[in-house]
Amino acid sequence: MRPLSNIFSKEVRELLTPATVLPIVVLAILFGSLGGIMGDVGGEASKPPIIGIIQQDDSELANYTAMILDSESDVVYKSTDIANIDEGLKAVSSAGGTALLVIPQGFGDDIQSNRSGTIRVYWIMKGTGMLDTISSASLDGLLGVTDKMLSMYILENEDMRASVNVTTALNPTIKNETTTFKGQTLEGISPSSISATLSSQNMVVPLIVLMVIIMSGSTVIASMGLEKENKTLETLLTMPVKRSHIVIGKLGGAAVVGLLMAFIYMLGMSSYLNSLQGSAGLNLSDYGIGLETLDFVLVGLSLFLAVVAGLGLCLVIGVFARDYKSAQSLTMPITFLAMIPMFVLMMKDFATLPGAVQAGLFAIPFTHPMMAMNNLMFGDYTLVVAGIVYEAIFASAMMAVAVILFKKDILVTGRKKKREGKEVRTWPRRR
């Protein structure tokens, strides 16, 4: 039994290492956090929407409609003057509200004349993430409930039932929607329509960025592990070649591959967006939302710099790989760094996140290409350009660290020990 226990304990020690345990722990935390976020969806949806109401019409039907909206929502602004739209929008926005509703003059007369009464909805869109559209969906549901209750009120009132036909009684209201988002006013479109059109992009773009980072990063780390295992790196370091040239050569070759990936990615995404808008039935370019040639160049540059930054980080991590097997586990930190912004940005828009979370995501270079396309579509160039500058600085810093590590030969050609006051150089034992 002694040999069996030795073999068993040996296998457990080799498999139960920080490199194998840490990924599982991080994944558990990540999915636990994701579950908490999804759990908050129900709580957010159950909250009454925050709105403002401008009621111009003083008819019976208008008063009943306003009463329903007032009882089922949190009204932070009320007025009877249509000239106060800007004031109402500012008050609702300051309260973190969803929309300003206007019941115009003639609302009740239109319904009694067998024309659906118009409710003007001035949406205040916060972001394009899944959790950002919950409040607007909640208000949309409330407007549907209001329409049904108003229909029942008409059908139960004998005088109104005599003058209003069945078609109008069953559909007494219609919506005239205008959405304000990132300084743009989009008439005839709702946040749910914008979110539905961009939902595939919000999921596919981060996923593609994640795959590009993982593929290119794992290649660099695996290459370092193979060179150490085959002793080719030691041979290279003995040649009259500057260590900085070795680092630049490795990163340059991998960066060319990353650039090729970025170019192919942008061609595919351009085709994907064109087909997506055609199939969605809503062409955002009709509302001035789209990407120009410069925008595609900026997105490609952001992705390329993210790849270079990731390669520099992978090269630094790869220095500490003992062999090809250990190099495989070292790709996990890069994977996690790319997964975190992917999951967060799918749920929430960057602009709607708390400041501390924004700072944390901004510090991850892989975040910027994931959110660049959405920002550029709505004309937000500041964050994209700032992200590109940060990526360039991060990539340069990683290259500098890699050069320093290569010059010190740490874990590459040997390490220094101190024994009895004397410094002794210990070389890796060749197999």
Structural write-up:
This protein is α/β, with parallel strands linked by helices and 431 residues long. It folds into 2 domains: 49-189, 3-Layer(aba) Sandwich (abc type-2 transporter like fold); 197-419, no CATH class. Helices cover 66% and strands 11% of the residues. The chain is built from 17 helices and 8 strands. The protein has helices at residues 2-15, 18-46, 60-72, 85-94, 107-112, 134-156, 158-163, 166-170, 191-229, 232-238, 243-280, 293-318, 324-329, 332-347, 355-363, 367-377, 381-408; strands at 50-55, 74-79, 99-103, 117-124, 173-181, 184-187, 415-419, 422-426. The chain has a 6-stranded mixed beta sheet. Strands 7-8 form a two-stranded antiparallel sheet. Helix 2 packs parallel to helix 14, helix 11 (243-280) crosses helix 12 (293-318) and helix 11 (243-280) runs antiparallel to helix 17 (381-408). The longest helix is centred in the middle third of the chain and has 39 residues, at 191-229. Residues 413-431 have low confidence and may be disordered.
What descriptors fit this protein?
431 residues; alpha/beta; abc type-2 transporter like fold; 2 domains; two-stranded antiparallel sheet; 17 helices; disordered C terminus
